[in-house]
Design a protein that fits this description.
With about 450 residues, the chain is an alpha+beta fold. Helix content is about 15%, strand content about 30%. It has eleven helices and 24 strands. The strands form six sheets. The protein has a five-stranded mixed β-sheet with strand order 9-8-17-12-13. Strand 12 and strand 13 form a beta hairpin. The protein is globular.
Length: about 450
């Protein structure tokens, strides 16, 4: 099949969606309609999918190749075939080195959980142990030449700010907050219903001290007219990109313009320059808001009357209930922003054999409320919630969080409990935890009460 013929098949209306992969030709028309990432596949419609598969390497799995072979309709004509070397350009070749303490789920793009040890022992995760969620290759940025632009609704003249501007023209502030991926605990969800995506356990979250400048100060510096009716969303674009678009996301303007939300443009992480994996030289740090909106490698801020047009805003990180055929209408779903109260157990691990001490089991974990309301209580149970044991909350005395118990308590709260267990009556206990925040919000009793889409978000 000639590449000219393949190029004609770039939509369902054009006779089907064809793509090539390593000199083979595939008809992916039906696959695109049922796959959550179908719109990404359409980037290669009528052409080669190799470079996109290189970009989204997490999908390079044996079952995916087996499925692809069922869609094969032929081979590229001999005169159009590419040499083998053309298929082995690695867009991730300049990614940074990582610590072997991370639990790696995918290398390209790199996605790794924080290890159980740091989740259990550290209130602040060291930079090298902080979980990593990348969507594309890590960009290489020359900080001396870097700048970002602010434009859009309510701004008469776009402005550009450099790293030096951020350091010299604005007050530097500290915020202690975790960043959490929307897929955290997807593995637990998978036990109840088959879901797709990276099988994060409890480690798609980490807590750090961030230093930077207030977003409200930066927008004020840009002379943003907050009375402009078009000021509804603050959109962010990063320098990480695929062949179609940069990574982008947005947060409602009401949240971004509220100084009590403590949203900052961070330049430091745990008193060190931002590591490359975490957004060097500048990232958005939006406490309490799902990690996908905390855009790394910041390049643009655009004030808009609608949310970001980015794939990751419109087609991802949403709470969607699929229909009986497994299809989900993302256009009718709200983008996830503020996260609810939650908790997770990090010790013992699932199916771990535990040695009791005087008939008691030690349980450790973390709790957090995305609203910024403090965690007031955590309880654990070994009998499916019939009885509960109150845990000890283990928050260190840090000046950045001192006195923040009711509002602006963005930090997570480690907990520990000694829970009585009778090994004769209950030899295989199911340990559960529940957190209660300052507004007396609590989390659902079990996963069946949690709404989630096919990929577990």
């Amino acid at each position: 099949i000639s590449l000219k013929e393949v190029s004609k098949h770039n939509s369902k209306q054009a006779g089907g969606i064809w793509v090539t992969y390593q000199n083979a030709v595939y008809d992916v028309t039906e696959f695109v309609e049922v796959h959550p990432g179908g719109s990404r596949i359409l980037m290669a419609a009528g052409g080669a999918i190799d470079k996109y598969w290189g970009m989204f390497g997490a999908h390079k799995k044996e079952d995916t190749f087996e499925l692809l072979e069922t869609l094969r309709i032929g081979n590229v004509a001999p005169e159009d075939r590419q040499p083998e070397s053309a298929f082995h350009v690695d867009p991730y070749g300049s990614d940074p080195e990582r610590s072997d303490t991370l639990v790696v789920h995918a290398k390209k793009p790199f996605n790794a959980s924080a290890g159980a040890e740091t989740l259990e022992q550290d209130f602040i995760q060291p930079n090298e142990k902080f979980f990593v969620r990348n969507h594309m290759p890590v960009p290489q940025v020359d900080a001396s030449a870097w700048y970002f632009e602010i434009s859009g609704e309510g701004i008469d003249e776009p402005i550009k700010l450099t790293l030096e501007d951020l350091h010299t023209k604005f007050e530097q502030v500290d915020v202690v907050s975790p960043v959490m991926c929307g897929g955290n605990r997807r593995l637990d969800m998978h036990q109840h219903k088959n879901v797709r995506g990276i099988m994060w356990a409890t480690g798609a979250i980490s807590n750090a001290k961030w230093t930077g400048v207030r977003l409200t100060d930066v927008l004020r510096h840009a002379n943003l007219d907050i009375s402009d009716p078009g000021v509804k969303h603050i959109c962010f674009e990063g320098l990480d990109r695929d062949d179609k678009e940069p990574y982008g996301a947005s947060i409602p303007a009401d949240l971004c313009l509220d100084p009590a939300r403590d949203i900052i443009l961070a330049t430091k992480m745990n008193d060190e320059i931002l590591p490359r994996d975490h957004g060097y030289p500048v990232r958005v740090l939006a406490p309490g808001i799902v990690g996908g909106r905390n855009v790394k490698w910041l390049h643009k801020i655009i004030v808009s009357d609608e949310e970001s047009p980015s794939f990751w805003q419109r087609q991802d990180y949403k709470l969607v209930k699929p229909d009986k055929n497994g299809k989900a209408d993302f256009s009718k779903a709200f983008a996830i922003q503020e996260l609810p109260v939650m908790s997770a157990i990090v010790s013992p691990q699932p199916d771990q054999t535990v040695k009791l001490e005087d008939g008691h089991m030690t349980v450790k974990g973390y709790a957090w409320s995305g609203s910024g309301r403090g965690i007031h209580k955590v309880e654990v149970s070994a009998d499916n919630g019939k009885t509960w044991t109150e845990a000890i909350l283990k928050v260190p005395d840090m000046p950045e969080i001192r006195g923040k118990m009711h509002t602006r308590a963005w930090h997570w709260v480690p907990f520990e409990a000694m829970m009585a267990v009778d090994p004769l009556r209950n030899p295989h206990p199911t340990v559960t935890a529940r957190a209660i925040d300052a507004a007396h919000n609590s989390q659902p009793q079990d996963m069946e009460e949690v709404g989630y889409r096919p990929d577990g978000t």
